[in-house]
Write a structure and sequence with these properties.
6-stranded parallel β-sheet; Rossmann fold; 18 helices; 12 strands; 45% helix; alpha/beta
């Protein structure tokens, strides 16, 4: 069912950039904006902090608000809270924001306590100049009927957005607890206090899974009913036109597609593959990995790569780097199974839907949104969290059973086609937008 275009809305989607890397939240926000435009709505996607990088057509406007360089300088120095716009404009150049954002990504949450609190304080913080600039743009150029805020880090903006623009504010919950829980005390506790107090400024929260909605209701200390759930959706371009009943059995291949970092668990997958190679018939099992590798984790990955090179997986391991859409789809199509054994509880798992859209079954740890996605799609299996041997056994069972892989792949593909496309996500969000406006 397609949303009618006769009653179009003016929607402002604020989207936080990820310092020049592909990220699930950016891709999700972009897919939502593009789907809303296709449905005939006047949707403006406004980048915050850094430019937004996507692997499909980019819906974002060219300007960046809350530019990462400017907000940090205004937080750190009284001088930059009063500089003219011409100087601020220089600090908002995309190349500079991307470079600074990449550097900032190397800084641990424990070191960003004061800065985070400043942003959370909104109109009471030292970055009020940036918030005022955003509000002026929304008033004069966008005139939205509703505003969507990208995550809890920008909850401090909700109060002034509402009072100045007189429109509802929806705030998305997409996995920010990882950063907030990694902050050092007393900043961690103070951030939670500010967020709980500012939660009253938000008309509706929306989470990407029921798991995360439950988690954040406790964190925010709000009624669970105030947090709706709209699953992520992916563009129809991801869908394979047909699903092969089985793939060639000449080799068995597992794929990994996520950031290259300890929390995503590539090293645990390597451990599982080494255990898998010890099983009869799996001596030549392949592992192909892809994903963004930031400077903060280059040494970690170098150590992991050196360990792989010295062992029996050396000839059977490939790292493709950060791949574009064609590379991503090729990786998923070539794989027999897909695995990302995260150490943390994932809030959305967009890459799971992307993989199922190609008909490749998933093997995931039994925490976070993963069990929910596996149940909702029928496209995979789960294993014990943090247990490389359990992962190896689960991979072995699935890789040895082409019939089951085909069944899971077909089920996952059908579920994405019928319930997890960007159009489905847009319809879910539109229902929330209209309810909030009423």
């Amino acid at each position: 069912m397609t949303e009618s275009t006769t009653d179009s809305l003016r929607i402002a989607i604020l989207a936080a950039g990820a310092a020049g890397m592909y990220c699930g939240s950016c891709i999700r926000d972009n897919a939502l904006a593009m789907a809303l435009k296709t449905m005939g709505h006047d949707c403006v996607m406004i980048p915050l902090y850094t430019p937004v990088k996507t692997d499909t057509d980019n819906a974002a406007i060219g300007q960046v608000f809350y530019g990462g360089v400017n907000v940090f300088l205004q937080h750190a120095s009284r001088i930059f809270r009063h500089t003219p716009r011409v100087l601020d404009w220089l600090m908002d150049r995309p190349w500079l924001l991307t470079m600074a954002g990449s550097y900032g990504a190397q800084t641990s949450p424990a070191q960003l306590g004061d800065f985070t609190l400043d942003i959370l304080r909104g109109e009471s913080g030292h970055t009020i100049k940036e918030l005022r600039r955003l509000i002026k743009f929304l008033k004069t150029d966008v005139k939205p009927q509703i505003i969507s805020v990208p995550n809890l880090m920008f909850i401090g903006a909700a109060r002034l957005l509402k009072s100045e623009l007189k429109v509802p504010v929806i705030l998305e919950l997409t996995g920010e607890d990882i950063f907030l829980n990694a902050m050092a005390e007393p900043h961690k506790a103070e951030a939670r206090t500010i967020i709980r107090e500012r939660a009253r400024d938000v008309d509706q929260f929306v989470a990407t899974s029921h798991y995360y909605a439950d988690e954040m209701a406790a964190y925010l200390d709000v009624p669970r009913a105030k947090i709706a759930v709209v699953y992520p959706g992916i563009p129809r371009d991801y869908l394979a036109s047909e699903i092969r009943s089985s793939k060639p059995e000449t080799r068995k291949t597992a794929a990994y597609l996520a950031r290259i970092c300890p929390e995503k668990g590539l090293d645990q997958l390597v451990d599982a593959m080494l255990l898998l190679q010890q099983k009869p018939g799996f001596e030549n099992v392949q592992l192909c990995a892809a994903g963004y590798l930031g400077k903060a984790h280059q040494q970690w990955y170098a150590d992991l790569a050196a360990r792989i090179a010295k062992g029996p997986l050396a000839k059977n391991y490939t790292y493709l780097g950060e791949v574009d859409l064609a590379g991503k789809l090729g990786l998923m199509d070539d794989a027999d199974v897909f695995a990302v054994p995260t150490r943390y509880a994932e809030a959305k798992g967009l890459y799971v839907l992307e993989c199922l859209a190609r008909g490749t079954p998933v093997v995931l740890p039994a925490h976070g949104a993963f069990p929910e996605l596996v149940t909702e799609t029928g496209g995979g299996v789960t294993h014990a969290v943090g247990d490389a041997r359990a992962l190896a056994d689960t991979l072995a069972e699935l890789l040895n059973d082409p019939g089951r892989r085909a069944t899971l792949g077909k089920a996952g593909h059908a579920a994405v086609r019928d319930r997890f496309l960007d159009s489905h996500m847009a319809e879910g969000m539109l229902a929330l937008y209209r309810a909030a406006i009423r």
